[in-house]
Design a protein that fits this description.
The complex is a heterodimer of chains A (262) and B (461). Chain A has 262 residues and is of the alpha+beta class. Chain A has four helices and 13 strands. In chain A, strands 6-5-4-3-2-1-13-12-11-10-9-8-7 form a 13-stranded antiparallel sheet. Chain A is elongated, with a radius of gyration of 21 Å. The model of chain A has no long low-confidence stretch (mean pLDDT 86). Chain B is built from seven helices and 18 strands. Chain B has an 18-stranded antiparallel beta barrel. Chain B is globular. The relative contact order of chain B is 0.12. The chains are: A alpha+beta (262), B alpha+beta (461). Chains A and B meet through helix 1, strand 1, strand 2, strand 6 and strand 7 of A and helix 1, helix 2, strand 1, helix 3 and strand 7 of B.
């Protein structure tokens, strides 16, 4: 009887250890997200182009091209971003500034700037928060919920991933909750699921086509699936990356009319 | 007994492990891959960049009006029933070298309509909006000279601190203030702007180039650049913005033939979906009636004796509002406008009474309304403004918008609803329906047009 009790106890302790190992490990969730951020984002100021193609029922419907200028804010550690429309013709020259919770939209037709809330999305299925460069570790608290999940990437190749749950910790966070799958060893993001404040699944993203951009292998394509209407899919292709010295004075309302595309 | 408890605990623990694995790990995440279209997998990555510094388009706008058969105060001119405008619109800038940039914004118009003889000198016109040179001798220091649209203000329906707005509007079909901002004339000026990390300083001087032209009673100005409207007196503006407490305040001083105007605007993020903003300006000036009557004394009926407050006093102008955006992208702006020098309820009723009893007074009444519109200031002391913006009602195809000016005195409304349909990347179709609602004695119900409808096609070149 006593022996049976001891066996149960050993199994129990062993299971507990396995369980804790599975969801914890040596790496903390926050450090995984930080390393994942550094895979997605260069650590120096840069400019790039971003082509968004919207698909409906599998067919391309609309295309937007943006020039994006990104730089880390030394105080917050988060990126400051300027995004100017290059295409389509009707939107050419419109510019969005995103600096923490400060967002402005400049329209060259009216030559005025309007202050935006984080909720105001301007790019169809992709939000401003998707297009611009964001360090998730600065806006979200991370928790590992799966330590060795096998997940297929957009090329249907199996990846061994951390499954991480992200909760917002400040007003800059665009989403109410994020689930993120990060490939072990490479720290490359494989997949993300983005939720509203009310917990509704808004979109699913696959990080795809890793190429050398500014000295590291980074995803050059993000495939965004609308979770509400899955017939709507948007791809974001980033290209023409260049390191660039960007003055802090660019990231304010009064500079928006002055931005020249180079 | 003790053993059974341990057994039970063990079973519960194993069960919880299974459940947690189902929740966190075993869901078939790979099924989402089936949602990716085949076209994406076959797509070739882009490798080109097309950076253009401006746009040009051809626009055709057909407008029809349904006018009131009876009016309490009749309009002294014949009103059009329909008009068609075809325009070539260009807005380009060219970087000449590291320091110099040249900018041009212009619109060439052709008109036909039941009130416009064809061909005649009213059949064509040009809106010369902007042409200026920008010199950047040092980084973030800009010197500019030419005709420039210098705009200020954070509100959408009325901008008290947008001091160069007066007499700058040109003929457009829309009552939407943003459309009026798009098409207004610039002012010939020299401007210096310094931009720092958290703020900027702007100095501008607009010289007098012509004597003040008479207030336009027709909307078509031909090929006249209208310097007599935009540069009729020497004007000076200094504005300073510096971000404090994330409120982006901007302070302004503007000096013209009326006196020294002061202005202030600021905005604040309230939550992830709400923005609040306010804009104020003040100057010592006469009320709107007196300013209108002293403006164009030659064109006013001889012998007009109007009792108005001719003494100047400090007058406040305020626009305060907030925007709210839903999770479905609908944005609603609500604003309150206070225009101290505007008409109060007693003034307005007196004018309605005078205008309805005497054709000369009717002419004066409409002249004051025309003056307020030209100055881009409210006629009345108090008004509400609402804007609804619903983009992507059909993803990347259809936008819906509506604006409304609401009179708190009588509940009358001047509203416009618009639909924009993006036929292709280069072509947009728009429908605008405007209406004035209220009794014939009300602020907006007394307007001559019950409703109008404009059909607009834009083709980007």
């Amino acid at each position: 009887m006593k022996r049976q009790y001891s066996i149960y106890l050993i199994i129990l302790i062993f299971s507990l250890i396995i369980h804790l190992q599975a969801y914890g490990g040596d790496e903390t969730a926050q450090s995984i997200i930080m390393r994942c951020d550094s895979v997605r984002n260069p650590d120096k100021p840069f400019q790039m182009n971003d082509r968004l193609t919207e698909y409906k029922d599998g067919l391309p419907q609309n295309e937007v091209i943006l020039a994006v200028y990104s730089k880390i804010d030394e105080e917050s550690g988060q990126f400051k971003n300027l995004a100017r429309y290059i295409e389509p013709p009707r939107d050419r020259g419109k510019t969005v500034l995103m600096n923490g919770t400060t967002m402005w939209f400049y329209d060259p037709a009216s030559k005025t700037s309007v202050r935006l809330s984080a909720q105001q999305r301007l790019l169809g299925q992709a939000s401003v928060g998707d297009v611009v460069t964001v360090n998730l570790a600065k806006d979200y608290s991370a928790k590992i919920v799966g330590n060795a999940e096998m997940l297929n990437d957009a090329d249907h190749l199996q990846r061994k991933c951390w499954h991480i749950d992200l909760s917002p910790i400040n007003d800059s966070a665009v989403y109410g909750r994020v689930e993120y799958w990060v490939e072990k060893e490479t720290y490359r993001p494989v997949k993300g699921k983005f939720y509203s404040d009310s917990g509704r699944l808004l979109k699913i993203a696959y990080y795809h086509k890793y190429v050398d951009q500014l000295g590291a292998m980074r995803p050059s394509e993000i495939i965004i699936i609308d979770a509400v209407n899955s017939k709507l899919v948007t791809t974001m292709n980033t290209y023409a990356h260049k390191s660039k010295e960007i003055p802090d004075s660019w990231y304010q309302r009064d500079f928006l009319p002055r931005l020249n595309i180079e | 007994m003790k053993l059974r408890t341990v057994q039970l605990f063990f079973i519960v623990f194993i069960f919880s492990l299974i459940v947690s694995n189902i929740v966190y790990g075993q869901e078939d995440e790979n099924s989402d891959l089936l949602l990716i279209p085949k076209a994406i997998e076959d797509k070739v990555s882009p490798d080109k960049n097309s950076a253009l510094s401006g746009k040009a388009y051809i626009e055709d706008a057909f407008t029809g009006w349904l006018n009131r058969s009876t009016q309490t105060v009749p309009v002294p001119i014949e009103l059009p029933n329909w008009q068609n405008r075809t325009s070539l619109d260009i807005d380009y800038n060219l970087q000449l070298n590291q320091w110099l940039k040249i900018s041009l914004s212009d619109r060439l118009n052709g008109y036909v309509g039941n009130m416009i003889p064809f061909p005649s000198n009213e059949s064509a016109g040009n809106d010369f909006r902007e042409a200026f040179l920008t010199f950047e001798p040092f980084p973030m220091t800009y010197l500019e000279a030419g005709r420039i649209n210098l705009k200020n203000g954070t509100a959408l329906g009325y901008n008290p601190s947008d001091f160069f707005k007066t007499q700058s509007s040109v003929n457009i079909a829309s009552i939407d203030p943003s459309a009026q901002k798009e098409n207004r004339l610039g002012t010939v000026m020299i401007e210096d702007q310094q931009i720092w990390d958290n703020g900027s300083l702007t100095l501008a001087f607009a010289p007098k180039l012509q004597n003040e032209t008479q207030l336009q009673t027709t909307s078509i100005s031909g090929f006249n650049p209208l310097f007599g409207q935009t540069n009729y007196t020497n004007r000076f503006l200094a504005s300073l913005s510096y971000d404090i407490a994330n409120m982006n305040p901007k302070a302004l001083i503007f000096i013209d033939n009326i006196g020294a105007h002061i202005g202030l605007s600021l905005s604040k993020v309230i939550s992830s979906s709400v923005i609040a903003y306010a804009e104020w300006a003040g100057v010592t000036e006469a009320d709107i009636t007196n300013r209108a009557l002293t403006k164009n004394t030659q064109t006013l009926p001889i012998g007009t004796m109007i009792q108005s407050n001719t003494s100047a006093a400090f007058q406040n102008d305020l626009a305060i509002g907030a925007s709210w955006t839903s999770s479905s992208k609908l944005t609603i702006n609500l604003e309150y406008h206070y225009h101290q020098s505007g008409l109060n309820e007693g003034d307005f009723n007196r004018w309605i009474s005078l205008g309805s009893s005497n054709s000369t007074m009717a002419e004066v009444y409409w002249f004051i309304r025309q003056y307020a519109a030209q100055q881009q200031e409210p006629l009345m002391q108090h008004e509400f403004f609402a804007l609804f913006d619903y983009p992507d009602v059909i993803q990347s195809k259809l936008n819906l918008d509506a604006v409304a000016f609401i009179s708190p005195y009588d509940g009358s409304i001047l509203a416009q609803e618009s639909v924009s349909y993006f036929i292709s990347r280069k072509m947009t179709l728009g429908v605008f329906i405007s209406e004035s609602l209220g009794s014939l004695l009300s602020v907006y119900g007394s307007l001559p047009s019950i409703m109008s409808m404009a059909l607009r096609v834009v083709w980007y070149i």
